[in-house]
Amino acid sequence: MATTAPEKPQFRTAPTAHRALQDHYESNPEWHPDHPHEWDVSRSDIYFEDRWQPIFADMRAKGPMHYIPESPFGPYWAVVQHKAIQHIEALPELFSSSWEHGGITILDRLDDEKLAEMGRERFELPMFIAMDRPKHTGQRRTVAPAFTPSAMKGMEDSIRQRTGELLDTLPRGEVFDWVDTVSIELTTGMLALLFGFPWEDRRLLTFWSDWAGDTELALVRDLDEQRQGILREMAMYFQMLWMERTNQDPAPDLISMMIHSEAMNQMDPQEFMGNLVLLIVGGNDTTRNTMSGIIHGLDKFPEQRKLFEERPDLIPNAVQECIRMQTPLAHMRRTASEDTELFGEQVKKGDKLVLWYLSANRDEEVFDNPDKLQIDRDNARRHLAFGYGIHRCVGARLAELQLRILLEEMHERRLRVHVAGDVERVRANFVHGFRKLEVEVTEF
After folding, report:
1. Which of 129, 183, 227, 312 lies 20 to 30 A from 340 at CA?
2. Is 224 helix (H, G, I), strand (E, B) or coil?
3. Which family does it belong to (predicted)?
């Protein structure tokens, strides 16, 4: 782990992305993105208010995909059924992930003329998840060794120790925020270890992750410009770490892996920044929000909490079921590379297809009683929260390991966690999770 930190970033005192967006809503009550279509599920309020479930259920009942002609993010196909998303992800040449065509989120890629009209400069973040083969293959292979089964085995003891030590510090008889105290602390610490990041600055990883993963910020010019500045500063910080390690021997941290990789050691600044965003958001927001979703789900379904307490052998399957229920990234996006027919619909070259994982993981044709947490569900592993095909999450094993250890260490200590206060969700259509989850700990 690096022991000396670079110069402190100037944005350290900036608000979180979530707080900045909330402040914008509160100070501009007349401002809101226009969503004229009843099935435009790009609207962040349905996730913030946790009322997205019946909307997607209605869409699934009417078909696997639906064209949304108008939204703040442009027209798109909403792909909502499990089988349709798997089919599209299995055809990466036909349905591109490349940043050059729009990348992996619902955001539009504006042409140069439109940018000039808006008086804005192009700001794009190439990353290997937003690349097509063959470049995707080489860059993914660079970081993949950090997430092999043998690498996971080597990490397990340290993850278990950090998790146990943190659980032992949790207060009894008082309400605290599980998101900040447990979910963020565990996942940010893990990410700091993976990067060899200065430990005292590890909370910057959370700060950057929040600003990087919020698509709605792009709709507010001032916030989008602030976001760009924060991400450039993130890249400068990591560039200093890169320079420190350039002449050092190869090491198992992700920065060293990039330095010693032909596929990644000549990245331009935007690509470097993009891959950092991918690894930070992928390694932070996803696991952190499932750690919170586990607690919320077990509290909402007390009979499942009782089953967890009585049957610790179900923990590995419970992890998969909790990932399915939470689905920490609501969507991924693909772009059609040619005209094609898809499930009876005519898709044109350049059309945007938004794959709603959140909906696929509640698909009644795959999961019986999908809105209920069932930790003994026999097909929980069929969830699509990690994606499918060549772009399936490279860090999936690490996420599963951290979640399994959390549940095992909670069970070892006979911890029962009750929701006992405010529950605040993320206002976003990409990252799906919790900003605050006030709880109280007892024992069973």
Report:
1. 129
2. helix
3. Belongs to the cytochrome P450 family.
At 287-337, the pLDDT tens digits run 999 999 999 999 999 999 999 999 999 999 999 999 999 999 999 999 999
The segments of the chain whose pLDDT lies below 50 read 1-3, 5, 115
Q: What distance in Å separates the CA atoms of residue 147 and residue 109, rounded to the nearest whole number?
A: 32
Beta-sheet strand order (sheet of 331-336): 65-68, 76-79, 352-356, 331-336, 95-96
Q: What DSSP character marks residue 184?
A: I
pTM: 0.89
74-85 b/e with 16+ CB inside 10 Å = b? bebbbbbbbebb
Distance between terminal CA atoms of the chain? 38
Which string of DSSP letters, residue by residue, matches 303-360? HHHHHHHH-GGGHHHHHHHHHHHH-SB-EEEEEESS-EEETTEEEPTT-EEEEEHHHH
All domains of the chain in start order, with CATH: 37-443 (1.10.630.10)
Q: How far is CA 411 from CA 187, 305, 378, in A?
A: 19, 11, 22
Cβ–Cβ under 8 Å, residues 416 and 402: no
Both tokens of residue 396? 């999936």
Radius of gyration (Cα) for the chain, nearest Å?
21
The number of CA neighbours under 13 Å toward the Cβ of 376 is 11
Phi, psi at residue 218, to the nearest 5°? Answer: -65, -20
